[in-house]
Amino acid sequence: MSMTRRNFLLSTGWAAVAGAAVPATGLSADPATTTFKPDDWRSVRTQFNLSPDYVHLAGFYIVSHPRPVREAIERYRKAIDENPFLTVDRGMFGKPEDRMATRVCEAAAAYSGGKAGEYAITPNTTTGLALIYNGLMIRHGQEILTSEHDHYSHHESIRLATQKNGASWRRIALFEQSSTATEDEIVGRLIEAIQPNTRVIGVTWVHSSSGIRLPVRKIADAIREINRKRDEPDRILLVVDGVHGYGAVDEALPDLGCDFFAAGTHKWILAPRGTGIVWARDYVWAQIRPTVPSFISPDPYEAWLKGDAPRGPTQADWVSPGGFFAYEYQWAMADAFHFQKQIGRRRAAERIAELNGLCKEGLVKIPHVTLHTPPDGRLSAGIICFEIAGLTAQAVVDKLLRRDIIASASPYAKSYARVSFSIMNSHEEVEVALRAIHDLV
Ligand SMILES: Cc1ncc(COP(=O)(O)O)c(C=O)c1O
């Protein structure tokens, strides 16, 4: 018997599929779910299926889905496999209250501030940055100013965009040495480098090259002063690659003061692999032209039906790239934001700062170890970069792996060994890592 749409909706129970808190029919509620204590770090650790054979110190690289996220993915996968058309048609193009993208954006706003309508959903940081730089209306002769320290994805997004729009780009060093940098030095160097034709500044909140965290708010405030003397078309826009601060630092996005914020949510936010966001204020989205047709907003599609283009300024959901996605992953983003909210943004950030702070304190005491991340918690977050005299970064990583410790080597021209403590790590693991690094020396 073919199932009518009505039958489907009655039998599946959309609320059970889409509701974050309701386990789907047929999925047993695991004891670890029912006994999850968000204020107990050991209980938080039980939410991850991380192999107990290793000390995992590269959590920032790509997420291990925590239990609520795994369960949500499974719920959506089951619903899509049972009814691909009805589930996706309803979740994507159904009544406004059924649209899953709206739920995701609402959950993002509840966790990180701003309004749901200010979030675009992306597959990762790289795509978010590319959508921003490719979409910004920069005039020939204007420039994008960035730093020497940013990720390949950031620099390539700028290079590819400027190749097309005829703008130029320039990279400067924000500090002499990452470990001893000061907020004044960073802000001072950046502001000093601004030229009359500088239209965009692109920075990284927490650097995966050195672990340094930039004072984004102070940078934004200094740029605002310069913008006071500029006309709207020349106003400097601040773009932030925020991926290693988002979920690691206790900061609401609107408080950062930047114009555009791009981040993958598959690192510190613990959302499904292949997910991310771009956030900007309503009026800032107007500065962007969308690059990929959106399936989330009905506006461009309805305009297209009439042989037209959507009217009015660009909105966040026009910029969310369309085409069909792995919806069980995209929709489960909301469950990750709920999980983070249960734990608490501040508590998670304090835990990350505490564990990484202890590790840095230990590292500076080990002879022949050079710490490249500032010891000051205000200038760092959850990534620690270091060198051991006489060993390459990869050699350090290989040797640690032989002791069942998973570290990583930074993917930059000058590579450092990196360890990172996240909410799934413990004080004991800090000690184990320090002992192993000490023994390598
Ligand atoms: C600073 C920084 N930006 C961007 C990226 C790329 O992130 P994604 O995989 O979300 O595109 C990375 C990768 O880890 C990174 O370290």
Task: Explain this structure.
It is a single chain. The chain has 441 residues and is α/β, with parallel strands linked by helices. The protein has 2 domains: 111-341, Type I PLP-dependent aspartate aminotransferase-like (Major domain) (Aspartate Aminotransferase, domain 2); 345-440, Aspartate Aminotransferase, domain 1, CATH 3.90.1150. Helix content is 43%, strand content 12%. The protein is built from 19 helices and 13 strands. A 7-stranded mixed sheet has the order 2-8-7-6-5-3-4, with helices on both faces. A 4-stranded antiparallel sheet has the order 9-10-13-12. Strands 1-11 form a two-stranded parallel sheet. Helix 4 packs across helix 5 (84-93) and helix 7 packs parallel to helix 8. The longest helix has 20 residues, at 345-364. The chain is globular and about 70 Å long. The protein starts with a helix and ends with a helix. The model is unreliable at 1-13 and 20-32 (pLDDT under 50). It binds pyridoxal-5'-phosphate. Residues 124-126, 151, 153-154, 204, 208, 241, 243-244, 264, 276 line the site of pyridoxal-5'-phosphate.
